[in-house]
Amino acid sequence: MIVALIIACEIGFWVLLAAGLAFRYLLRMPRTGLALLLCEPVLEVVLLVATAWDLKNGAEPDWTHGLAALYIGYTVGHGHRTVKWLDGHAAHRLDGRPLVRPPRYGLARARHETKVWLGTLIAAAVATALLQLAIWYVGDPGRVTSLESWRATAWRAAGIHGLIALTYWLWPKKTPADGAEPDAAGRERVGR
Predict the structure, then answer these.
(1) What tens digit of pLDDT does each residue of 57-97 get?
(2) CB count, 10 Å around CB of 170?
(3) Is pLDDT at 184 greater than 70 in this prediction?
(4) For the chain, how big is the Rg over CA atoms in Å?
């Protein structure tokens, strides 16, 4: 049941996002679009309540409960950034606004990657807190080993992402000397 609910929440996320952006840019109803986008966190609350209800009704804590905690953590850590990124692309495609891209070179890129990694740290912290609450809620050390292993998974993912972000500081990509930058197809184009 929990896996089906996670899938439903993910589908709901994209449906609400598409509807919110469509109302905002295609139908020129920005308030309605914003209201739809603000409904996104309700999906995570529903998933959290359903997971707690499942555990309360005596379900054996397993990987599905851990996955739900990681999903909620990811949404808290990266959901706003994802919505903002897609909103920027929709504004560019549908409203003619300039596309704001992250920096591609040097220390500016390293700072950007560090900010993204901080979102992963927040996701791991939220998932860990939810998993710990679930462990205390179940209250039986013999039944919660699966939940404990998901805490390690969350921090392993944060550690790997941190190592990747660190590479941008250690080996920053240099700006091309001639000012040429590759376009989307990888061909060189001059200037901006």
Answers:
(1) 888 888 888 999 999 999 999 999 999 999 999 999 998 99
(2) 7
(3) no
(4) 20
For residues 6 and 71, the answer to whether their CB atoms sit within 8 Å is yes
3-class DSSP assignment, residue 42: helix
Q: Do 78 and 119 touch, CB atoms closer than 8 A?
A: yes
| Per-residue CA distances from 73 to 104, 109, 119, 154, 173 (Å) | 27, 25, 9, 9, 31
CA atoms of 112 and 123, how far apart (whole Å):
17
Q: How far apart (Å, rounded) are the C-alpha atoms in residues 184 and 181?
A: 10
pTM listed for this prediction: 0.83
Q: Are 42 and 50 in contact (CB under 8 A)?
A: no
Task: Report which listed range, 23-27, 95-99, 118-122, is most confident.
Answer: 118-122
CA distance 130 to 150: 11
Residue 139, by phi and psi: left (phi above 0), alpha (psi -120 to 50) or beta?
left
> CA-to-CA distance for 121 and 53, rounded, in angstroms?
27
